[in-house]
Write a structure and sequence with these properties.
heterotrimer, A alpha+beta, B mainly alpha, C mainly alpha, A: alpha+beta, Rossmann fold, OB fold (Dihydrolipoamide Acetyltransferase, E2P), 6-stranded mixed β-sheet, globular, B: mainly alpha, MetI-like fold, 2 domains, MetI-like_sf (chain C)
Chain lengths: 334, 274, 290
């Protein structure tokens, strides 16, 4: 069990309203990702759920029970911190066993659970080491191990991969997703990286300045962003925003077209652009173009397309995949 | 070629460094050597080859009762340090883990009490000690040394405690540890190294404090500083014995000091240089 | 709620040290201030009376006062000069790769752990004694007349002793700072064509500036109060030739029994120390924000 409900939750630090008021429903077993730029309040929101910060007003319910005033330990949640927060003076074994010792379980039970967790996380050979003797990825797994042995009703992750290098981040992303499929426990995951959000989440919560911009599955957010902020934040490379005559011809203030939805040709199209930079990734190539009367445009094309700095390229937006926004930045539905 | 230059450079630097080090260490070395000379040898001109007698050490004990000031030094330095730690740990803890807007001001103010020149309060302290019958008492001196070093102790502990990451405490709270368990299982083990180095440095400072210990004691409570200072009035030729007494006075703290080099920098600069 | 409780607890935990230091600071200082306006002699304790600024005037007109201020400045300035320059030089030397670095460090740091009376007595008897000291032996070796250090150069002798005690401190701190200098920065400067002297002036000195400030200020605090070294060597003499302000106050108070006069001197010492403290606090305080 592990459903979390936020009712009109707000948080004020001194003068600063970090979170004005948020309502959110997290269902049992869901993998929910809070994503947004730094300072959007996503970490604060997670810490409010954890109980590490007191809410200024509103209520937090876990499995229908009001835990607004409960201590962190009483909420039955486990958290993985950005810095991993391992106990430096304890061996890996004792780090993982610590929450079980606090729960005053039998020694035999503790040993078994630690052994199980170590096996799942490939830590069996490292149980007697100190955290300082481990690599970044191993520390990360210890932190996860410490969280899973408690069999919490939900896991909270606070930017857990931001201290790892790119390759390891990819691996750990898979491991965490895999873990979620095995355990089927609710996970709440905070990140500023939209790639992590897209690849891992069942449900993404996009936050900006303490407000929820949109909630939905990765594909919903990708296909129908509710406003300019979400449209610009989700997707990589970012969506192109075009204003002026082209947008007006589509009855919008701003027209949005993703780089992958531009048809490219060497001889004809409605936009004509000059390649400023071509990023060849192999399978794909990202073209950064200067387009007359439109401005800077990023286009994604097949690696075989063969365009280089200074080449002229023609583009045609795929009108069925066009996003239109009004003067308030809200999406217009067809 | 490059390696040759590097090796030659290293040898030159090594020779220079050892010469400088030996010159600086020479007075201590010579004191130790003189302490195992006979008195006539000690004044017979420069010599690094003593006859190797331990007579002086025995004489210092039998004639001047060395053990008594030594014990006083131990009691005063260890006693005042422990007392200071007991008072300082809770404050440093509070300032490091629940800082307020005024924490910084309080720390700076504490440091400022350390700046007060001792002589400025010599008269009132002397009179107060006299009136309360604390002159030449171990209790009086222990209290004195505690107060003198309290700001440094608070500061050192504060800088150590502040390095304990807050996330670890939060992790232990998430893991179900109560306040007491948090202190016993997580905080204390992480704070012990800092407390130990503070203890070490403060014992050194208290052991060597040479204003109040000399002025406020005469015989009963006199630690080694006062004991050695009493040798300044000449009583014939006594250099070998003086050297023996000096060697014994500095040896324990010299060895402690070698172990605490790193902490010394940090402690004496109030964390400004690490 | 919880946060409020923590705050109350934190205040309670801080109370003992704050109160103790408050008492320790206020009571004796207030007494000193009070005494400084009194005519109070320990030999005649029944006859205490208010004298206004007489003690200050007395102190101020005493020729020993200016001599002692001058001597204080010479000790502070002389020791700082020797320790800072010597400290930088030795720190640069120790920063090189050398054999037996650990032992060299231990030898160099050692004088700092020697208690002041021992340091002073060792130098007075074994090193600087005009008949039997090591310096005298060296002079004789070269056929020169040995110098009677404490009679001819009493103040300079004390500066040497105190500098010997503090040189390790300066060296150790500057070495620590030097070692924190980013190796890549040095290599970048080398690639940019900077020679040793250029690297020293443009890279090392600015990097050390803060540590040098800290060394100067902290040493000054301690050097203003040099006492034991004077007591066991020259006892302030000959005349007042090696009496600093601290020693003069001690003389006035416990040898002259003049409580009022000594207290006036004490207040002057506080003012002096506060000027230095002001700068030290700013230097240390900046570090807190980092």
């Amino acid at each position: 069990m592990g459903s979390i409900t936020l009712q009109k939750v707000s948080k004020v630090f001194g003068e600063a309203k970090v979170i004005p008021s948020i309502d959110l429903e997290i269902n049992n077993g869901e993998f929910v990702v809070f994503v947004g730029p730094s300072g959007c309040g996503k970490s604060t929101l997670l810490r409010l759920i954890a109980g590490l910060e007191d809410v200024s007003s509103g209520h937090i319910l876990i499995d229908g029970k009001d835990v607004t005033d409960a201590a962190p330990a009483e909420r039955g949640l486990a958290m993985v911190f950005q810095s991993y927060a391992l106990y430096p003076h304890m061996s890996v074994r004792n780090n993982i066993a610590f929450p079980l010792k606090m729960a005053k379980l039998d020694k035999a039970v503790i040993d078994k659970k630690v052994a199980d967790a170590a096996r799942v996380l490939n830590l069996t050979d490292y149980l007697e080491r100190r955290p300082s003797q481990l690599s970044g990825g191993q520390r990360q797994r210890v932190a996860i191990g410490r969280a899973i042995v408690r069999e919490p009703s939900a896991f909270l992750f606070d930017e857990p991969l931001s201290n790892l290098d790119a390759a390891l981040r990819g691996t750990m992303r898979l491991e965490i997703s895999d873990l979620h499929h095995q355990l089927k426990t609710t996970m709440v995951y905070v990140t500023h990286d939209q790639v992590e959000a897209m690849t891992m989440a069942d449900k993404i919560v996009v936050l900006n300045r303490g407000n929820i911009e949109q909630v939905g599955s990765p594909l919903e957010l990708y296909k129908s962003p509710r406003n300019l902020f979400v449209a610009g934040f989700i997707g990589s490379p970012h969506m192109n925003f075009v204003t002026g005559t082209y947008a007006q011809s589509k009855n919008a203030k701003t027209a949005g077209i993703r780089p992958e939805h531009l048809g490219l040709s060497k001889d004809s199209g409605i936009w004509r652009g000059v390649v400023k930079v071509a990023e060849h990734l192999g399978a794909d190539t990202f073209l950064h173009l200067d387009v007359e009367g439109v401005g800077q445009i990023t286009a994604r094309c097949d690696g075989e397309f063969g365009a280089y700095h200074g080449d002229t390229v023609y583009m045609t937006p795929d009108e069925t995949k066009l996003h239109r926004f009004d003067d308030k930045g809200l999406a217009l539905r067809a | 070629m490059a390696r040759n230059v590097t090796t030659r450079h290293k040898i030159t630097a090594t020779v220079a460094a050892w010469i400088v080090a030996l010159i600086i260490f020479f007075p201590i070395l010579y004191t130790i050597i003189t302490s195992i000379k006979t008195e006539p040898e000690a004044i017979a001109g420069f010599s690094l080859w003593p006859s190797g007698t331990f007579e002086n050490y025995i004489t210092v004990q039998t004639q001047r009762d060395y053990l008594k000031p030594f014990m006083n030094s131990v009691i005063l330095s260890v006693g005042s340090t422990i007392l200071a730690l007991i008072i300082a740990i809770p404050s440093a803890w509070a300032m490091a883990f629940s800082p307020t807007k005024r924490t910084k001001d309080i720390l700076m103010w504490m440091l400022s009490t350390k700046m007060m020149p001792a002589v400025a309060v010599l008269v009132p302290i002397y009179l107060l000690f006299r009136d309360f019958g604390l002159l030449d008492s171990r209790i009086g001196l222990t209290v004195m040394l505690t107060l003198i070093n309290l700001p440094i102790v608070v500061w050192m502990l504060y800088t150590y405690f502040r390095e304990i990451p807050g996330e670890i405490l939060e992790a232990s709270r998430m893991d179900g540890a109560g306040l007491w368990q948090e202190i016993v299982y997580v905080l204390t083990p992480m704070a012990v190294p800092g407390i130990a180095s503070t203890l070490l440095l403060n014992i050194i400072l208290a052991w060597n404090e040479s204003f109040w210990t000399i002025r406020l004691s005469t015989t009963n409570a006199a630690p080694l500083t006062a004991f050695i200072a009493s040798f300044s009035s000449p009583q014939g030729l006594f250099w070998a014995k003086l050297s023996a007494a000096s060697t014994m006075a500095i040896a324990p703290i010299l060895i402690l000091g070698w172990f605490s080099q790193k902490q010394l920098v940090r402690g004496l600069t109030f964390g400004a240089v690490k | 709620m919880a946060t409020q409780n923590t705050k109350t607890l934190a205040r309670l935990m801080m109370a003992p040290s704050v109160l103790l230091l408050l008492i320790w600071m206020i009571v004796p200082l207030a007494m000193t201030l009070w005494f400084s306006f009194q005519n109070y002699n320990l030999l005649d304790p029944s006859n205490v009376s208010f004298t206004g600024l007489f003690n200050y005037q007395f102190f101020y007109t005493d020729p020993a006062f200016f001599q002692s201020i001058w001597n204080t400045l010479v000790i502070v300035g002389g020791v700082l000069l020797i320790t800072v320059i010597g400290g930088i030089a030795i720190a640069l030397l120790l920063d090189q790769p050398i054999f037996g670095q650990g032992i060299v460090r231990i030898l160099i740091i050692s004088p700092f752990f020697v208690m002041p009376p021992v340091a002073a007595l060792v130098w007075k008897n074994m090193i600087m004694n005009p008949s039997y000291g090591v310096f005298a032996d060296i002079s004789k070796f070269f056929g020169l007349r040995p110098i009677d250090w404490f009679a001819q150069y009493p103040l300079f002798s004390i500066v040497i002793i105190v500098a010997w005690q503090w040189l390790p401190f300066a060296t150790l701190i500057l070495l620590t700072a030097l070692q924190s200098l980013d190796g890549e920065q040095k290599e970048a400067a080398e690639m940019d064509g900077a020679n040793f002297l250029n690297r020293f002036i443009y890279l090392v000195v600015p990097h050390l500036a803060r540590s040098i400030t800290v060394v100067i200020l902290i040493q000054t605090i301690f050097l203003l109060g040099v006492y034991a070294e004077i007591l066991v060597t020259t006892n302030g003499g000959p005349g007042y030739a090696s009496t600093n302000l601290a020693f003069l106050i001690y003389r006035t108070a416990l040898l002259g029994y003049d409580v009022g006069g000594a207290s006036a001197g004490g207040i002057i010492a506080v003012v002096l120390a506060n000027i230095v403290a002001f700068f030290l606090m700013r230097a240390v305080g900046k570090n807190l924000d980092r």
